[in-house]
Description:
This protein is an alpha+beta fold. The chain has one domain (3-183). It contains 2 helices and 13 strands, in the order αββββββαβββββββ. It has helices spanning 3-27, 96-103; strands spanning 32-36, 39-45, 55-62, 67-74, 80-83, 86-90, 113-121, 125-129, 135-136, 144-145, 151-156, 162-168, 175-183. Strands 4-3-7-12-11-10-9 form a 7-stranded antiparallel beta sheet, with no helix packed on it. Strands 5-2-13-8 form a 4-stranded mixed beta sheet, with no helix packed on it. It has a two-stranded antiparallel sheet with strand order 1-6. α1 crosses α2 (96-103). The longest helix is centred in the N-terminal third of the chain and has 25 residues, at 3-27. The N and C termini lie far apart (82 Å).
Amino acid sequence: xxxxxxxxxxxxxxxxxxxxxxxxxxxxxxxxxxxxxxxxxxxxxxxxxxxxxxxxxxxxxxxxxxxxxxxxxxxxxxxxxxxxxxxxxxxxxxxxxxxxxxxxxxxxxxxxxxxxxxxxxxxxxxxxxxxxxxxxxxxxxxxxxxxxxxxxxxxxxxxxxxxxxxxxxxxxxxxxxxxxxxxxxx
Length: 186
């Protein structure tokens, strides 16, 4: 058989095999026991004094089990806000049918989790992660990142209150983070 004929006969097989491998690879999950990890956020002023009564919210999404949620708490006297682990039983084939159908579309559904935290300060504050230098993030001109891949940015809500936003990498198993804040006028 000629090389050209072999190529014509084998190329559809190669395309089907490559497509099948990509499809199966896109459908597998990373086994884990949570949709969002246990989370602690502590907020202190410049001198290390805890800031109590601040609103802290957590939003999370688990693409493998197609669940999401959010909750809010206030920082306590020690400046800390705590959220429990959101349990999930995610095995290698969790959500396989949904992910297979989703991966056939123009945008695959992904695999894993994300967790974001916000802290609302009454008024205009300068907020930074405590003892974690920031650098420009790879994918955003607005947000910075620390050395652990946590994305950080600040902005304002509709009431001109400072909002600090933190997004954690999907492989994070425990969130324990400290922010330092000072009123903008200082």
